Amino acid sequence: xxxxxxxxxxxxxxxxxxxxxxxxxxDVTLEVRPGFTGLIxxxxxxxxxxxxxxxxxxxPDSGEVxxxxxxxxxxxxxxxxxxxxxxxxxxxxxxxNLTAVENVMVGGGRHHxxxxxxxxxxxxxxxxxxxxxxxxxxxxxxxxxxxEHPDRAANQFPIGSQKIVEVARALLNEPVxxxxxEPAAGLGAEDVDTLVxxxxxxxxxxxxxxxxxIEHDLELITRLCPTAAVLHxxxxxxxxPPREVLRDPVVVEAYLGAEVAAGD
Amino acid sequence: xxxxxxxxxxxxxWFALLGLAIVVVMKAADVPNFAMAEMGLVATYVGISMxxxxxxxWLCVLVTLVAGVxxxxxxxxxxxxxxxxxxxxxxxxxxxxxxxxxxxxIGLVWGHAPRSFPAPWSGASVQLGGGVSIGVPQIVTIVVxxxxxxxxxxFFRTGTGAQMRAVAENRATARLIGVDAxxxxxxxxxxxxxxAALTVMLQAQSALVSTLSPTSLIIYGFVAATMGAFTSLxxxxxxxxxxxxxxxxxxxxxxxxxxxxxxxxxVFLVLVLRPDGFTRSVRLRDV
Amino acid sequence: xxxxIEDARTxxxxxxxxxxxxxQVAEGEIxxxxxxxxxxxxxxxxxxxxxxxxxxxxxxxxxxxxxxxxPNKRARLGLCQLPEGRGIFQxxxxxxxxxxxxxxxxxxxxxxxxxxxxVLEIFPELADRLDQSASSLxxxxxxxxxxxxxxxxxxxxxxxxxxxxxxxxxxxxxxxDVVRRLRESGVTFLIVEQQSAALKVSDRTYIxxxxxxxxxxxxxxxxxxxxxxTSYLR
Amino acid sequence: MSETTRETETTETAVPPxxxxxxxxxxxxxxxxxxxxxxxxxxxxxxxxGIVAVAALVLLFAVPFVANAYLVFVVGLTxxxxxxxxxxxxxxxxxxxIGLAHAAMFAVGAYGSAVGIAHGIxxxxxxxxxxxxxxxxxxxxxxxxxxxxxxxxAIATLALGMAxxxxxxxxxxxxxxxxxxxxxxxxLPGITGSASTYFVILVVAAxxxxxxxxxxxxxxxxxxxxxxDLGQLSGSLGVSPLRYRxxxxxxxxxxxxxxxxxxxxxxxxxxxAMFQMNxxxxxxxxxxxxxxxxxxxxxxxxxxAVVLIELFQDLGDQQAIAYGVLLMVVIAVxxxxxxxxxxxxxDSRLGxxxxxxx
Amino acid sequence: GSSGGGSxxxxxxxxxxxxKIGATLPLTGTxxxxxxxxxxxxxxxxxxxxxxxxxGGRKLNPILLDDGxxxxxxxxxxxxxxxxxxxxxxxxxxxxxxxxxxxQFIAQxxxxxxxxxxxxxxxxxxxxxxxxxxxxxxxxxxxxxxxLGAKRLGVIQQDNDLGVSxxxxxxxQLPKHxxxxxxxxxxxxxxxxxxSSAVNKVVAAKPDAVLLAEDNTxxxxxxxxxxxxxxxxxxxxxxxxxxTGGTSTVGPAGDAAEGFLAGMQADTVSTNNPDVEHWRxxxxxxxxxxxxxGFSLQTYSFVKAFAELVKRMGSDLSYTNFTKTAEGLKSxxxxxxSIPPIECGPLPDGHTCAVQAGIAKYTGGKxxxxxxxxxxx
Lengths: 264, 287, 234, 358, 377
Ligand SMILES: Nc1ncnc2c1ncn2[C@@H]1O[C@H](COP(=O)(O)OP(=O)(O)OP(=O)(O)O)[C@@H](O)[C@H]1O
Ligand SMILES: Nc1ncnc2c1ncn2[C@@H]1O[C@H](COP(=O)(O)OP(=O)(O)OP(=O)(O)O)[C@@H](O)[C@H]1O
Ligand SMILES: CC(C)C[C@H](N)C(=O)O
Ligand SMILES: [Mg+2]
Ligand SMILES: [Mg+2]
Description:
- Chain B: Belongs to the binding-protein-dependent transport system permease family. LivHM subfamily.
- Chain B: The chain crosses the membrane at residues 12-35, 55-79, 91-112, 132-156, 184-205, 217-246, 253-273.
- Chain B: This is Branched-chain amino acid ABC transporter permease.
- The structure holds 5 protein chains of 5 kinds.
- Chain C is built from 10 helices and 10 strands.
- By secondary structure, chain C is α/β, with parallel strands linked by helices.
- In chain C, strands 6-7-8-3-9-10 form a 6-stranded mixed sheet, with helices on both faces. A 4-stranded antiparallel sheet of chain C has the order 2-1-4-5, covered by helices on one side.
- Chain D is mainly alpha-helical.
- Chain D has helices at 3-8, 46-66, 69-94, 102-118, 123-145, 150-170, 172-175, 193-217, 219-230, 241-267, 277-290, 297-311, 319-333, 341-347, 349-357; strands at 181-182, 269-270.
- In chain D, helix 3 packs parallel to helix 8 (193-217), helix 5 (123-145) packs antiparallel against helix 10 and helix 8 (193-217) runs antiparallel to helix 10.
- Chains in contact: A-B, A-C, A-D, B-C, B-D, B-E, C-D, D-E.
- The interface between B and D is large, with 61 and 66 residues.
C-alpha cells in the first residue's frame, strides 16, 4: 500500500447519499493527497457522512470511494481499516475500563505480527510485539500531551482529552489515511497547540500519509492544512487554501457569518 | 382444534400479560425483571389467604392487585433505584436475588403446595358441540387479558411515555432536565406489579400456582417481551398470544415433549429473520 | 445574588478535583468560567446540577441552600443544565427530546406549542426533523437540540458546558446573540467555554486552574488586557 | 436491556455523575461492564503475582491430604464451576454477549465425556474432544446469533440451549434419556477415587485459568472489550466484531464443555434435568457476583455459590431465603461484584484518606 | 476417602451410647412439601425410639440435610454425611434423581443406604429398597386397570426418571393384558407447568383410564384439567406423585381429586391398622409440618424397621453383620405393620426388600384402600 509521492490517497467520485429521501451528499467529488486536508462546512452539511462512507459504515447510493486506488465500497469497516484507514469519532468512543494506553493499543491490531495463539503461549515474538506497541502508545500519548496519566481509566478523562486519546489510537496503526472528526472540539488553546504540533510531527515521520480533518476551529485548519474543502448542503462548494476559501463570500455567508470574515 | 385454540389463547394471555409487566418496567426503569412472576405470586397468595378468611371474592381481587402495586413500588424504592447508575448487570442480578428470596419467602410463609384462587366461576364450563368444553376461567382469562392489555396501552399513550423512555435510556440525564425519575419508575414498577399480580391471579383461577410455577412463566414472559422488542406493548401482547398458540399447536400436532423447545425454536427463527421482533425497528445511527 | 458558591469541594470517589471554589452570579448576569482542559469546569457544572455531591462548602440558589437536593428538584427551581456531551436521548425523536425540556415545569399544551415554535425559530435546522430519531442528527444539530431543550424549560439560571462544542462559527455567533437576547428576557447564564468569543457576551469571567479559583475579572477588562488574553486565551 | 436503549446508552461509570463519559459504551449486549478490573488494576509485579498463584496452587494441591472426601468434593465442585464460569464470563463479561446456552454446553461436555468413556475412549482424551465438539456446536449456534443483540441474543441462545438438552433426552439409546446415565470414574493409579478426580480437576482448572488469563490480559482481551463497548465501531480499529463475537462463543463453549467433563466425573451420574434453568441461574449468579469482566471473578463467584450453600445447610428450610437475601446484599453493596471490593475501597474517599495517612 | 468395610473394623458413627444416621431431603425447593413429610416421619420415629431408651442403649442421632431437590447437592450431602458426619447408615433419604449419583461413592465406602424413597433399583449390595419402586407401583396399577376392565389406556409422563419408570412398567405389563392398548402417550417437560395440550390430546383419545408419571403439582394440574374436560374414568399416580395419604396432590386438585387412585408404599394414613393409628397419635402430637402425610408414615416405618434390624444384629454392628442380618430377613421378615413385610433377597440382585404395592383411593376427602398390598403379576 505504498502511495507514490503526492499521489491521491483518498478519492471521492460522484458520491451521492440520501436518507429516506433526504439527500445528504450530492455528487461529491474530492481528492485527498498526502498531507493535511481540511473538510469544513456548516452543521449538517454531510461531513461526518463523508467519513462514514469511507470507513465502511455507510454505502453511498452511487459514486465511488477509493483509498490508495482501491475501491472501498462493499468493504466492512474492519476491511477498510485493514487498508490502512484510521479514524476518530465525533463523540469520542473509548473503552471505558481500559487505561488510556490500552485504548491506544487497541488501535494497533494491523501491525501485530503474531497471532493470538502465539500470544496465548507467551511466545517471545508476541511479547515483543506487545511491548513495542505499549511503548509506541505511550510515546504517542506523550506527544499529544497526555503523558501524565497514561494508566488512568479512559472514562476518567475530560471529554477533550478523550478525543485526543482517540487521535493517538488512530495514529498507532501507522495508517495511510487518517480521518479526524472534530479532534479539537472541547479543547482549550494550549491543547490545540499540542495537537497541532503532535500532528505535524507525526506527519513529518509519515510523509506518505494523508490526514483529513473535519473541524470547526478554523484556526486549526488554517495552521495545519494546505488545502481545505468546503461542504455545503452535501455539495463540495470549493476547494483551495484555507485562507482563500474562507474569504469566499458564499462560505462567509453560509458558514462563518458576516462579522467574522470582516474581523478575523 | 377449538380446544387447542382456547387453551393456547389462555396460556398466551398469561404470557402476554407477564410480558407486558416486564416491558412496562423495562420502559421506565430499564431493568430486566426476573422476579416479576414471584412478585405476582406473592400478591396472589395474599389474595388467596384473604379469601381463606371468607372475604368476598371481589375484595380479594382488589387486595391482590393492590398488593401487586405495593410490592412493585417497594422493590423499586428499596432496592432498584440506587443501583440504576451502575448499569444493567447489578440490576439484573438484583432481580435474580429477589426472585430467589421471594420464592423462598413464599415457601416459608405459605408452603410449597400448589394453590388456586377460588373464583365464583371456578370449575364452571361451557359445553360446545362435539364434546368440546371450555372452562369459564379460560374465557375470563382471555377477556381480562385483552382488556388489561388495552388499558395498559392507553395508559402509556399519555404524555409520560417519552419521559419514561428518557429515564430508561439515561436516568441521570433525565433527572438533570427535571424529569422526576423516581416518580416515573415507581409508576412503572407499580403498574408492573399490578399486571404481574393480575397474571398470576388469573393463572391461579383456572390452573394452579406454586413456588414452582414462576420458573416457566417468567421464561415465557421474557419470550413474549422479546417479540415486542422490549418496547412495544402491542408487539408483546400479540407475541405472548402467538407464543401460547404455537406451543399449544406444537403440543397437539407434533409432540408435547418438544412443546417448549419447539416454541422457543420458532421464536429463534423469528428473531433471526426479524432481528427486531414484531415491531417496527428504531434504527439508531451510531457513527 | 442568584447563585452563590462558597468554598465548594467535590470529586470522584476518593479523588478531589475541586479544592474550594467560590463563585457568585447575580440575577440577569452572564458569567463565564474559563480554564484549561481538565481543570474541573465540568465538575463544577455537575456539582451545581447535583450529579456530583458537595463534599464541603455551600451552594445557595435564590436564597435556598441546595444542599443535597436531587437534580430534578433543582431543575424545577429553574436551574437548568446543558451537559457536556449533550445528553440527547437517542432513542427518542427530536420533537420528544425538545418536549422533555418541559418536564421541569407545569405548562399548558398551548403554551408548550408556542415555546416550541420559538425554539424552532432559533434553530430552523431542527424544525423539519421533528419526527426523526435524535440519533440521526449531525453532531452540531445535536448540540442545537440540547440547547433548544434547555430553553424549553425556561430556566432562571442556565448552566452551559461548552456552548460552542461542535458548532460551526456562524451558529456560535448566532447563539451568542441569542444568549444576549435571552438575558434581556431575564435568564441568567453561567457558561463554561474554551472560546474567547464567549467573553464578548459575558459580564464577568472566572478563571479556574487546578480546581481552584485563579482570577475573577470583568470580561471586558480581561479581553482588553493583552497579557491576560495571551496567557489564558488567545 | 432493551435493544434500542442499548445502543445509545451513555455509559455511566461507577462514579455517580451523569457523565456523558464515553459515547456508546454499551453497544454490544448493553453491558457497561462495571467490573473491568482487567487492566488498570492489573499492574503490579509479575513476580509477586506468580508467587501468590503458586502458593494458591500448592494449597489447593494439599486439600485431599488434609481434608475428608466431602471437603475435597466441595472444593472440586467449586473449581469445576469456576472453570465453567471462566467461559461464561468470557462470553458475557468480556465479549458482552448474553448467550444463555452455557448450561447446555456444560451438558454437552458432561455427556460427551460420559458417552465417550462408555465407548472406550479414555477420560483424559474426552476432555479436549468434548471441548472441541462443544466449541463447534457453539460456533454453529453463535453464527446466526451473533447478529442479534441484548435480549434477542439471550432468548435465541436460551432456546437453542434448551433444544440441545431436549435432544440429549431424546437420544435415550446413547444417553439414557431422562433417566440419566452413570459415568465411569477415572482413577489415577494408586490414588483413591475422589482424590484422583480432584487432582484431575485441579490440573485442568489450573491450565484453563492460566490460559484464559493469558489471553485476556493481552491483546485478545482488549479487543474483546473493544467489541463489547464499541460494537460495530470497533471495525474502524481493524477489528471484525462479528468474528470476535463468534470466537468468544466458541471459546466459551469449549471451556464450558471442559468443565462439564469434570462435572460428570464428580457427579458420577448425570441426567438432562440437571442442566436446565436450575443450573443456568446459578451460573449467571457466579458470573455477576464474582464480577463480570473480571479475571478472578469466576473463582470468587463459584466459591460464593457453592461454599455459601454448604455453610447455610444448618439453617434448614430458611437457607434458601438466606441465600437470596445475601445475594441481594452483596449486589447492593458491591454492584460490580465481589472482586470490585478492592477497587471500591481504593477509589472511595475513605481509601483516599487512608492512602494519604500512610 | 477411607473405606469403612471389613468385619474386623469398627463401623463409623457408632459409639457406646449413640448411632449416627443421616438423610438428604428436599426441605426447600420444588419438592419441599414431600421433604417436610419425610423429615417429620424420621423425627417422629427417632424420638419414639430414643424415648424408649434407644437401640440396645444407643440413641439414634439423625443428621438431616437439605438438598433443595437438586442433584449436585444430593451428591454433596451424601458425601458430607459419609465423610464429614461419619454416619453409620443413610436412612430414608429422598429418592430424588440425584441419588444415583452417589451409588459409586456409597459402594466405595460401604455405607448402607436403608430405605431410599422410591429411586430406580440400583441393584447394589449397599442399597436396601424397602418399598415398591415407581415401576412396580405402575405395574400394579396397570393390572388393576385391567381388572377394572379398562382397554384404552392414556399415559402422561414426565421426561425424566418418572417417565422412564412408567415406560418400564408398560413394557413389562402390557404384554400380559393383550386387550389393553395405550391410546395416548404424552410426555411433558419437568418443571414446566404447561400441561394442557397433553391433557387435551389424552382426552381426545377417549381413554378408559389414565396413568400419570408426574410430580405432585403436575398431577394435581392434570387431574383438574382432565375432570374439567369431562373425563370421569380412573386416574392413577404413584406414591411420589400422588402424595398418597397426604394433601400435597389432592389438596391443590380440590374437587377434581374425587376418586383419584394413588400408589401405596405404606398403608394409608387413615386406616385403623393399629400400627398406623400408633403413628397417627405420635404425628399429631409432634406438630411438625406435614407430619400426618403419607411421606411421614413411610419414613417413620423405615426408621422403625432400621431400629428393628439393628436390634437383631446384636452387639456386632459391623457392616458385614448388617448385610448378613438383612439377608437373613428372608426367613424372618421385619413386620412394621404399616408397610409390607421386609424380606431382603441376597445378591446378585441387590437388596430389593419389598416389591408389593397397594392402591389407595381418595374419596369424600379421605384415603381408603382400594387394593391391598400385592406384587405385580
Ligand atoms: N442515519 C441518518 N438518518 C437520517 N438523517 C441522517 C442520518 N445520518 C445523517 N443524517 C442527516 O444528514 C445530514 C448530515 O449529517 P452529518 O453528520 O454528515 O453532518 P456534519 O457535516 O458532520 O455536521 P456537524 O458538523 O454538525 O457534525 C444531517 O442533516 C443529518 O441529520
Ligand atoms: N468520572 C470521572 N472519574 C474520575 N475522575 C474524573 C472523572 N471525570 C473527570 N475526572 C477528573 O476530574 C478532573 C476535572 O475534570 P473536568 O471534566 O471537570 O474538567 P474540565 O475542566 O471540564 O475539562 P474540559 O475542558 O476538557 O472539559 C480531571 O482531572 C479529570 O481527570
Ligand atoms: C420422594 C419425593 C421427593 C418425590 C416427590 N414428591 C415427587 O413428586 O417426585
Ligand atoms: Mg459531524
Ligand atoms: Mg469539561
